[in-house]
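Hey L., structure's done. Input below.
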Amino acid sequence: MQILITAAGSHGDIAPYTGVGARLRAAGHHVTLATHDTFAPLVRAAGLDFRSLPADPRAPRPTAGQTPDPAPTTQRALMRRAAAFIRQLGAGMAEAAAPGTDLLLLSTTTAPLGWHLAEALDVPSLGLALQPTAPTGDFAPVVNGSRSLGRWGNRTAGRLTLRVIDRLHADAARDLRTRLGLPPATPRTVRRRVEAANWPVLHGFSELLVPRPRDWRPGLDVVGTWWPHLPPGRELPSPLEDFLAAGPPPVYVGFGSMAAGEGERLGALAVRALRRAKVRGILQAGWAGLTAPDATAPDILTIGEVPHALLFPRVAAAVHHCGAGTTAAALRAGIPTVPVPVTADQPFWAARLHALGAATPPIPFTALARTLSADDAVTRLAAALTQATTTPALRTRAQHAAHRLATEDGAAAVLQAVADVTKQPPRTATLP
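Output:
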């Protein structure tokens, strides 16, 4: 079967689908992952075909002499930028879905566009979500943080969030349907059709963190974490192995795709906090460019991209932004987390980790970046580091979570769902 997975965003939005794709390929399917050019090596390393999607989040920034786009400073400006991103993405989605595709697997980011492709191609589709996005009374929309608004308020906020998403997709949906030769239909109309048909959506996280809400419609399931593909024989770089062997387990510090351009300041703050807590540290550069002030210091090592699956079991604790993937990776390794959420769904996952007893109280990134003075920020982070590395209950809870996650197989649930949704002979269609 020819399966096309579409995903857009940062590394954490893409990497889990390499593991899903590799399992599907091992089951005999031909799998293509359409995403940004930045992640082509990641996709191909998993043995998957790659197709390019535009709107790459890691596109080169303007060089000296060029005028950069002004950063959005208002809600309206943010909405305009998001709508422009989606419109550009929509054009690329049409090109990625070649004739001959038998099944579409759509990430949260690409699903509102992918529904139109499935209609044009006349093929089935499945949603593969990394966050819970359907309205529920159990919690507020994950992009709104972790504060509950009560059951009625949570559901209302969830429905309003979907309306905002539909509004952001209005121009892209119109362009895409015209290009595909489909009759006009608003994003809200298409969403209602999809939901009325109980469109299946699998959620790639553990019920240990988010139990399936009882008020969700049929077709929405929580199946367990999808882990990024790890090529056989992959090892940590020799300098990192040497550093790990040279002393007690260090603390990992990384912010993934967050805090771009703030690496020098954040690195200096992290190093001071690590030393005040009397622990060694590994700084992962990430998109922030996190780096230590003294590259030769024996107690601190700065690294590039390495698999969390290999590194996290070797560290004492992890300071991170609480993206969905990093959150799961820390639990899988059985290590405590010091949550420093930045934006979007990160405060939600930080709160879930803390409620589980596997993390210290979250420290909002804004507290470290803007609210506190440098000395106050160092003091607060150092106290959290000490708590994470000296409190047995935190490690015990994290290890219990690791045992639970080891019993789950989210990719197997995708294999079963693919079999279920394609029981009938595949229909054929060509793009206009």
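The CA atoms of residues 308 and 329 lie 6 Å apart. The two ends are 22 Å apart (CA to CA).

-- N.
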